[in-house]
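Comment thread on ticket #2218

A.B. wrote:
> Attaching the input chain for the structure job we discussed in standup.
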Amino acid sequence: MEKANWSSPVAGFILLGLSDDPGLEKIFFVLILLMYLVILLGNGVLILVTILDSRLHTPMYFFLGNLSFLDICYTTSSVPLVLDGFLTPRKTISFSACAVQMFLSFTMGATECVLLGMMAFDRYVAICNPLRYPVVMSKAAYVPMAVSSWAIGGTASVVHTSLTIQLPFCGNNVINHLACEILAVLRLACVDISINVISMGVTNVIFLGVPVLFISVSYVFIIATILRIPSAEGRRKAFSTCSAHFTVVVIFYGTLFFMYRKPKSKDSLGQNKDDLSDKLIPLFYGVVTPMLNPIIYSLRNKDVKSAVRNLMSQKCFTR
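C.D. wrote:
> Ran it. Output below, let me know if you need it in another format.
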């Protein structure tokens, strides 16, 4: 009977959302909608200028364009459903749609982990070995690097999504979350999920531990190289080329580590507090971080600001 309930084609999940207060839900709807529009506009403009402006046809901006496209895909896979949930009394999602959402969100998160590591390597070569930069970071190198980031993230997502959708849920279909997130869905399983927990731990090491270690080592060499630059102006310019990436890394990995390594309380009061933070942290990770990325890269990058101004002036001139 359990297997039949789980495998039913009409089976779905109920999403509890962020709040039961209609007034708060309207406020959250407006805020998240505005942030989503900023994400689409900011990242869309970044993708556009990296394609149209020949001065930005470099490895760093190629990676940045991938990051912007990734942020748009990640938010689009979940935010529209979240917004719809704020307007409908019963927030439901089909089993297949939930599986697709889990796959897309995990793919984008894992890909971004690897992509940020690739971007750190790009900055390391540019600052520590500038003479070899055109050879090491040629188009034949940085395009496969970006493609491999997507392939690795997608492969890991296929594994975890497959392991999750094969679990029996025994009729328990209420997800105490904003969207279908793998950790939230795993809590509904009525069987032992040791394999899922172990595989998630291995994945955390691969996509959190290894990239963070690689990025940290890269920045140790970067900072050491910058400090050896004799002129203050030279040091300032060198720092400016990697400060935006470093800021994005701190925000992204800081949120991820807090979300996946936060201890869980077993008492009822502590559980309620955990449930609220379990919703707010992914909301910050999934909406606020993609919104900040184009702002960070635009404010601290003269090339991007110049490209945007040129794009705007061309549009105005055309009109």
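A.B. wrote:
> Thanks. Noting for the ticket: Strands lie at 12-15, 92-94, 174-175.
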